[in-house]
Design brief:
five-stranded antiparallel β-sheet; 18 strands; alpha+beta; 8 helices
């Protein structure tokens, strides 16, 4: 930190209009403190404070990180309506006050200069800042002055999203003579709706497939027709660079000699299954995992129907295993449910 940076941070919080709100509310079942709303040129920003769901002092395993990410429901804010004024969301940025630079404290100090105070009886007042999150909800600016929130009817529209039900049911995969099979064919588990109603769901495991991406890549690059078609559009050197880049990308997420399992399954209640290796869930993440989705992508198009009359899912199990393994434990970790867009009236506390 230096005075140049301090000056830039201080001057960076200039705005055309500021409306202090300073009220506690319930949004999507979470208690939040609505700090203020600002307007600057083409953007309107709503600032919220909330208690962090989890506070971790050390790196957490993938099991916990996946759960934390799934519970970040406030990020699905699509629109805020204040009386008859509608503000359409463009972004939601969440940052721990304890892990931020000086920007967030300086911003809150500016709000305090304008009259904002966090009540001393607030649950956030005595918390360490590692336990407090600041949310910046950016909206497309609308014409006119910022609305008065004091006696306003406020509603929030939450975007369609995937609600994750945590199942965490282990399944053993056995490999023999190049074929894989699951120890369980039918996984039964409860799911709870938003209103507290409990339902029974079933995941049918039809088969386990083995994906050897190194073999597939080698077959592709060895195909003279593939090479010929590529060389019609690029130089020899560009082609060799492309091949080397693809091999390096694959090496980062799947070292040579490793394979992936694909679970072919069907789920009742329109649930989307997700399987992970048990060892993966116990590990802390490393940097190479960022290329996973870019390399293998996601399912597209209309799903086929499986033997149980349900949409057929082909789930690539996260993290590769040695091609020499004969027994591997995986988990049906989550079952996702698509929740449609819905509107909630903000309850002031």
């Amino acid at each position: 930190m230096d005075f140049k940076t301090l000056t830039e941070l201080t001057e960076g919080h200039a705005y055309d209009e500021l409306k202090i709100i300073g009220r506690d509310a319930l949004m999507y079942g979470r208690r939040v403190h609505v700090v203020a709303m600002t307007k600057e040129k083409e953007e309107t920003v709503l600032y919220l404070l909330t208690k962090a769901l989890k506070v971790h002092e050390v790196k957490q395993p993938n099991r916990q990180l996946i759960k934390d990410y799934a519970q970040n429901v406030l990020a699905s804010m699509a629109m805020v309506q204040v009386n008859d004024r509608m503000f359409f969301n463009q972004s939601v940025v969440t940052q721990s006050l304890g892990q931020s630079d000086m920007e967030s404290p300086l911003l809150l100090a500016k709000f305090m200069e304008a009259g904002w105070r966090l009540p001393q009886n607030s649950e956030l007042f005595a918390l360490d800042w590692n336990q407090v999150e600041l949310l910046r909800c950016g909206f497309r600016a609308s014409s006119g002055k910022l609305p008065d929130w004091e006696h306003a009817d406020v509603s929030v529209v939450w975007a369609e999203q995937m609600k994750e039900h945590f199942v965490e049911m282990p399944v053993k995969i056995q490999v023999e003579d190049g074929r894989a099979s699951a120890s369980e064919k039918e996984l039964v588990f409860p799911v709870v709706d938003a209103d507290g109603t409990q339902k029974q769901a079933v995941c049918y495991i039809n088969s386990i497939q083995i994906e050897d991406f190194w073999a597939q890549q080698q077959e592709c690059f060895s195909n003279p027709d593939y090479r010929r078609k590529k060389l019609e559009k690029m130089t020899e050197q560009a082609y060799e660079d492309m091949v080397a880049s693809k091999r390096e990308t694959l090496r980062q997420v799947c070292p040579q000699g490793m394979i992936y399992f694909v679970v072919e399954c069907e789920c009742t209640l329109d649930l989307q299954a997700q399987f992970y290796l048990s060892t993966y869930l116990r590990q802390v993440p490393d940097e190479r995992e960022g290329t996973f989705s870019e390399l293998f992508g996601v399912q597209t198009g209309e799903p086929q129907q499986g033997p149980h009359g349900l949409p057929l899912q082909k789930i690539l199990v996260r993290q590769p295993v040695s091609a020499e393994e004969t027994e591997v434990w995986v988990e049906l970790f989550t079952a996702g449910e698509i929740v449609s867009e819905w509107k909630e009236k903000v309850e002031w506390l």
